[in-house]
Amino acid sequence: MSIKDKILDLSNKMQGELVTIRRDFHKHAESAWTEFRTASIVAEYLENLGYKVLIGDEVMVESAMMGVPSAEVLEKHMERAKEQGARVKFLDKMKGGKTGVVAVLETGRPGPVVALRFDMDANDLDETKNPDHFPNKEGFASINKDAMHACGHDGHTAVGMGVAKALMELKDEFNGTIKLVFQPAEEGVRGAACMVEKGIADDVNYMLGMHIWGTPGQFVCGVDGMLATSKFDAYFKGVPTHAGVSPEKGKSALLAACAATMAMQGIYRHSAGVSRINIGVLNAGTGRNVVPEHAVVKLETRGETSEIDAFVRDEALRMIKASAEMYDVEYEVKAVGGAMSGTSDEELVALAREAATELAIFDDIKDRRELGGSEDFSYFMERVQSKGGKACYVMVGSKCAAGPHNGAFDFEESALSQAVAAMLQMTHKLAK
After folding, report:
1. Are 33 and 94 in contact (CB under 8 A)?
2. CA–CA separation, 119 vs 175, rounded Å?
3. Which among 51, 196, 230, 362 could disulfide-bond with 313, CB atoms 3.0 to 4.6 Å apart, if both were Cys?
4. Which helix (H) or strand (E) holds 208?
């Protein structure tokens, strides 16, 4: 039996298990940095298969983690994870939201280092209560408030576990070293940077990422147009006072925040490509007769390239600083997320097309597609490419009930075994 036939046979046979895993993660959705249950189940599964498993500080740099919830919130979610079946033996290493997991398979034969990345986190929203929604009908809708898998990461994690299982069964067919990276906090583009900073991609020759989304039956060999983005919160601190008795003694954080907001909307567009800025939140004040002491502005910038995003971000930071100085208030900026621009390497796009064609399980194979948004897999892409390696991000099409980040989102589960087969076939072509 050819390796292609072995891959198809294994991926088809595990479809039922993939569905079970996916539905379990969907039901117990966990948002960024709180994936204690999900990550511990993944770690146990990988360990039982015989992988070398690295967790927490072994694969993450704490100072590079962005937008991490408070210690109180993290503790609350860890306790919930324990109640919902988390594998307790792994949780100590995950304290502080350090929920990254990496599995390493060393074949003992010379060859490249190939890495595959799978994201695990859910979105911060509630799932629809519509009785016709498939997860509601089948009893696996999220039971966790403000957490729902509305972007398919439950499926991605299941696919990663399926790939891990098949790799162990077929390990004599592969050469070199294979790393399986299970990443937390992709939503809000917060989780990749801390794993990249740890160096887990520094020795990687080829890196693959994937997403279940797009036209049903279609396989996209290379996703481009990943917009670089910077997400941060600006906090202003003034001096409160009674607005009637002593207004001259006050320093308004609200006015500084408003000035910064208006100034940032006037940042020049960039001639080299697409640029964006959006101020999504402005909160300030305690009462109509009090000069506001505190204000916060939450915003994001984006650029067609990392350089364009840096231009918009730096201009925004300059205007925040100037507005604070103009109203004589203090300010602090906290980064809560970010991603780089990303382009799939042509060599791997061609390899992905060859792999998908050989499998003959897709109705349509498309070379490239523009993402039009941001994806922090771009951090991995940039690190690997900067060291002479190649990276590629593919898309496995599936019929979806609604758009991503929508409470009615769901995808057709037949995409699970297709994704496992595609990732395995590409990996084999790189590590045969």
Report:
1. no
2. 25
3. 230
4. strand 206-212
Q: Which residues are paired to 117 by β-bridges? A: 181, 209
Tokens at 170, concatenated = 């077929």
Q: Is it the case that residue 12 has pLDDT exceeding 90?
A: yes
What would the DSSP string read from start to end of 14-29? THHHHHHHHHHHHHT-
- Taking CA atoms, 245 is separated from 161, 256, 287, 328, in Å, by 65, 22, 15, 20
CA–CA distance, 259 with 343 (Å, rounded to integer): 37
Rounded Cα distance between 376 and 75, Å, is 26
- Summarised one tens digit per residue, pLDDT across range 368-385 is 998 888 999 999 999 999
273: which 2 tokens? Answer: 């490509």
Return the DSSP state at 123: B
Tokens of residue 381, six digits: 């892409």
Q: Enter the pTM of the model.
A: 0.94
Report all structural domains of the chain as residue ranges with CATH numbers, in order of start: 3-226+341-431 (3.40.630.10), 228-339 (3.30.70.360)
For residue 259, the number of C-alpha atoms closer than 13 Å in the C-beta half-sphere is 18
Specify whether the CB–CB gap between 417 and 15 falls below 8 A: yes
Number of residues that make up the chain: 432
Average pLDDT, the chain: 97
Query: How far from 340 is each of 181, 307, 310, 348, 382, CA to CA, in Å?
Result: 19, 9, 10, 19, 8
Q: Calculate Rg over the CA atoms of the chain.
A: 23
Q: Any idea what DSSP says for residue 315? A: H
Task: Give 225's Cβ-side CA count (13 Å radius).
Answer: 8
Per DSSP, 397 falls in state: -
Check residue 30 and give its pLDDT: 98
Name the token pair of 176. Answer: 């070199």
Q: Taking Cα atoms as reference points, which of 182, 184, 176 lies closest to residue 163?
A: 182
